[in-house]
């Protein structure tokens, strides 16, 4: 087991009724009811543009439209000021394209991520104050009180479009469009989504030809793929026509007619982002707006170059961060706070995500820079609200913003040590060892005989999959495996009989399991239809394996003592060495390792197991894993 398996709270009422009404497998009907209310199911399964809400549900929309129309009619200059990430870039591009169609005098500006920072920048505004009459923000501005005040004092009109949480006070803008502060029906629009609603109101249309830009920004910003976001992404990705997106897709050998949210999240989005991280994001807005073929061809290679450079920088920071972690006592480290002068502030957020995933702890990475103020980025793990916890020590920060899973901040170098101590103590008091072990939520439990093409096709009706609408994860019990083998280096493959024939199972990066899995196992994974040479076959993409609990239930204390003494006497050991030297079964050993890790008796680093010298005497009965598997 790589994870602790936790079933989701299941909605049991009306499952049969919903399954029959929408022709769904009962397990899929149950999943749908867990994700949306019964009244929303029709829209969820059929995310048509007709289900979009009126943009005039934003309280200030009419006011914003009147201001913009007046500036167009009077040929006054409009500046679109967007954020430097994919959400801001695509939202800015969308608004500029629409305003140009309406013959507006419009320009745009994306601040530099490193030099200018997030949000409205006073110095930039002062340098450009005579070049615009109206400024419209995209994906920023809701906390820019002083900057807005400055603009108003200079007799500029200000429209803020944003989706971030506001502070205690709102900026004194002429109009604010933000679903977080309005009575708007859906609160989770991305920045590009809010800009899209403004564009729809300006043109009195759904702008289907520009929806691809909105979809890319929405997916890249990791907002829930539910409600309006689901409609935007479903329709935007099936109709990609922006020449920049088409060329980016070609460059990475994808088919524009088969683009999924995962392609945007992990392939297309990072390439667009790399320009904002390492160069001038205004260049890519120009490409999106003008769509000049010769310039696109030239810039596609530059984008690829910037993305490769970003990956190299990210790889180096990741390597250096892990070197630091190797010197730490992870059993008494509940949050990883690391920093260096040379770490690029544009990529530390990506690295923080990787480290949080690997070590299953909250992470703050800090670019210390040359002056006394450093910039940082943090990522959390499920169950720990990073923004809430860091905000308790906001007096140590110069600036702090974010949400449950991510924060961005600036801090004086002299405060980093104190912050590390206070956050570590705070998180230690709020979590247990059990909370620092990766958990995975299971959508439904079925028997192997329940797997069919109809079931998988029903699962696919829940697409597009993404944040808060993940691909359903199924648990299969008592799977009788057949012919386990290693493929592709370190991937485990086997088959099992579901009563109608054999189904293949692929377990990526799980080759080590081959030596100790038994023939009767439980698995969790994604149900898929594999199309190979135009032949369809059923397949399970396995996420984790659990040998039968009954095989562990008779484990005795002497098994624990034996493994404990082996690790203690050898100072450090790998799993393979334990398997070779221990008389206990491999199944027992893996279970004992999990219990020891939870209780802080040992810790794992680079595939080696170390004894924790500072661990106090603890009872196995204090382990939630032990009680779950062995207890009554």
TrEMBL record:
Residues 77-218 form the DDH domain. GO terms for biological process: DNA recombination; DNA repair. Residues 289-316 form a coiled coil. Pfam families: DHH (PF01368), DHHA1 (PF02272), RecJ_OB (PF17768), ssDNA-exonuc_C (PF10141). Residues 335-428 form the DHHA1 domain. One of its GO terms (molecular function) is nucleic acid binding. Keywords: Coiled coil, Exonuclease, Hydrolase, Nuclease. Residues 556-627 form the Single-stranded-DNA-specific exonuclease RecJ C-terminal domain. NCBIfam families: recJ (TIGR00644). PANTHER family: SINGLE-STRANDED-DNA-SPECIFIC EXONUCLEASE RECJ. This is Single-stranded-DNA-specific exonuclease RecJ. The lineage of its organism: Bacteria, Candidatus Macinerneyibacteriota, Candidatus Mcinerneyibacteria, Candidatus Mcinerneyibacteriales, Candidatus Mcinerneyibacteriaceae.
